[in-house]
Amino acid sequence: MTNTNVTLNDAAVGAPPVRRRGKFAGMLQRSETLRGFFLLSPTLVVMTIGIVIPFAILITMSLWTAIGFGFDTTLTTANYETALEQPVYGALMHRSLVISGWATVATVLLSYPMAYYVAFHVHKNKMMWIVLMTLPFWTSYLLRVFAWKVVLGYEGVINSGLLWAGLIDAPLEFLLYSQQAVVITLAHSWVAFAILPIYVSLEKIDRSLLEAATDLGDGPVARFFRITLPLSMPGVIAASFLIFIPTTGDYITPALLGGPDGMMIGNLIQLQFGPVNNWPMGASLAIGLMLYISAIGLVFLALTKVFKERMA
Amino acid sequence: MSTESYIRRPNRPLQVYAIIFLIALYIPILFLPLFSFNDSIYVSFPLTGFTLQWYEELFQREPVWAALMNSVKVGAATAVLATTLGIFAAKAITKYRLPGQNAIVAFIMLPLVVPGIIFGVALLVLMSSLGVTLSLYTVAVGHVIICLPFAIATLIPRFEGLDPSLEEASADLGENAWHTFWRVTLPVVWPGILASLLLTFTVSFDEFIMAFFLTGTEPTLPMYIWGQLRFPQQFPSVLALSSMIIAVSFVIVFLGQWINRDAHISTVRK
To answer: How far is A141 from chain B (nearest CA, A)?
Structure first.
């Protein structure tokens, strides 16, 4: 399908336009690729200024050391060595991965049936359901986290509600300022990122495969595990990736709800750029987090590849 | 037909689950407006009575209005810039087959996946090494970077829905590139453009992490709220402010998604 498109396009462009204005304009007229990149150039310039250059500076700064209010710009890996030697950094990195991991598992498991329902059992107003499920995602992350603080707080909705109803005698203390609170809030906040990719992969499944399985004697459960689930795995992997990676660096949720036991690597990075005022250390922690994330990203890529090959 | 109905047989437990899911999704957020009308400084049950005093108090606060104006300015600038850049990029990506196109798209989509804190500190370090004072402009730069993926994801399905032969016809009939865009392309893609403007405005208006690292002396609305969260006696007015922000965001995003609804369906069906 794509191949025919390409040849059609090429054929359409085959006859070169005659008009010429200057050398560059002429080149633009002739070369598809050049015209494409010309159109892309403003975006690429902005992205270079906004991503590539800042990262280059961040990497350089991670090799400096802080002295008082200034920097010693001699290049050294001292910050990275400290990060590896002092157990607190490793422990926080580990905890961030564990918390994000649980949040990812919870979000994907809770969202899968929902995506399944909309893909297979909603026939009218599908768009309405999708908008309803993704609407909260667009509103302020800070406010959604704040809402959970209101719900889980020591004198918050759950505790005061249960006290009022006479079900408990004293507020439940584990709700707020705990890792569970962080996991619950993250899972709630990232639902949209799980539902959309899973829904798209379920929607793509050829319904005749399901009919064939039924005709060949598979019951609903066998059919789900042998057809639907494997075919929707790309969506599940994409969803896990889209939730796990950004949440490892989250610091608002742990700052508002995590308490001392729920602190994550993002909070540490923020501290280095804020109160601690050791920017080079903060820079190396950010780069370290980035490396971790890239490694995990590669694992996800490999997983997707394996699944796609098995499907093909 | 019989197999079809077998597969599509309504699933009662799943339906119940879906409804509980939606309730659980909205309930925590709906507690904010509920308690913002409660006549008590404590955010807890039982509710003590209805009041509008937290809203009234809010309207008299000068810093709230200033922060609101800052957020609107940053949001409008971000929406226009991100959408304009998004139009160029979506056009280039959908019309031409460029070498390394997938890598370029992945690169532009990076801010969607990389934790905000990393972009925040990277831009902070850039600004400080350039000697740029932090201000609303630096916040807008950060917001354009993180809004671009949303703009492009909204615009690409629209541009894909554009029949290339229409533009070719226009060019063959002697219109120049600008007129072709204005008279042929724009009428087809405008719902996408409008949706992109609305969505990127909301993302910027509600964004906190970039603003946290890049704000100078003038706070945006989320930064103002963050500052107020330290004071428990301010909770009721923060609830009132949050409720209004959430209500406005819901309306804008809903409008954006609604205007652009057929683009969504066409991508999903593909």
So the answer is: 7
pTM of the model: 0.85
The ipTM, to two decimals, is 0.84
Q: How confident is the model at residue B200 (pLDDT cuts 50, 70, 90)?
A: very high
The number of beta carbons lying within 10 Å of the beta carbon of residue A258 is 26
β strands within chain A, DSSP E: 65-67, 70-72
Spatial separation of the C-alpha atoms in residues B152 and B90, rounded to whole Å: 6
Contact of B95 with chain A, judged by CB distance below 8 Å, is answered with: yes
Cross-strand pairs, A67? A70
Nearest CA in chain B to A280: B125
How close is the nearest chain A Cα to the Cα of B70, in Å?
16
Question: What DSSP string runs through chain B?
Answer: -HHHHHHT---HHHHHHHHHHHHHHHHHHHHHHHHHTBSSSS--SSP--B--HHHHHHHT-HHHHHHHHHHHHHHHHHHHHHHHHHHHHHHHHHH---TTHHHHHHHHHHHHHS-HHHHHHHHHHHHHHHTPPPSHHHHHHHHHHHHHHHHHHHHHHHHHTS-HHHHHHHHHTT--HHHHIIIIIHHHHHHHHHHHHHHHHHHHHH--HHHHHH--SS--HHHHHHHHTT-GGGHHHHHHHHHHHHHHHHHHHHHHHHHTHHHHHHHHH-
Phi, psi of A67 (to 5 degrees): -130, 115
What does the pLDDT average to over A157-175? 80
Record: contact A143-B32, CB cut-off 8 A: yes
Cα A121 to Cα A118: distance, rounded to the nearest angstrom? 6
Maximal C-alpha separation, chain B = 72
Cβ burial of B241 (10 Å; 0-12, 13-18, 19+) is: buried
Q: Considering only alpha carbons, which residue of chain B is nearest residue A43?
A: B85
Q: Which residues contact B31 (CB under 8 A, 6 or more apart)?
A: A147, A150, A151, A157
**What is the per-residue pLDDT across A251-288, written as a single tens digit (0 to 9) for each?**
888 988 888 778 889 899 998 888 888 889 999 999 99
Per CB-CB distance under 8 Å, the chain A contacts of B99 are 33
Task: Fill in the amino acid letter for A95.
Answer: R
Q: Are A191 and A133 in contact (CB under 8 A)?
A: yes
Instruction: Name the minimum distance, in Å, from the CA of B52 to any CA of chain A.
Output: 19
> Of A242-246, B43-47, B141-145, which range is least confident?
B43-47
| Nearest Cα to Cα of residue A234 among A205, A263, A275, A276 | A205
Verify whether the Cβ–Cβ distance B29 to A164 is below 8 Å.
no
User: Given the structure tokens 């008082």, which residue do they identify?
Assistant: A68
DSSP letters along A158-219, please? HHHHHHHTTS-SS--TTSSSSHHHHHHHHHHHTHHHHHHHHHHHHHHS-HHHHHHHHHTT--
Task: For residue A58, list chain B residues with Cβ-Cβ distance below 8 A.
Answer: 121-122, 125
pLDDT, residue A64, reads 86
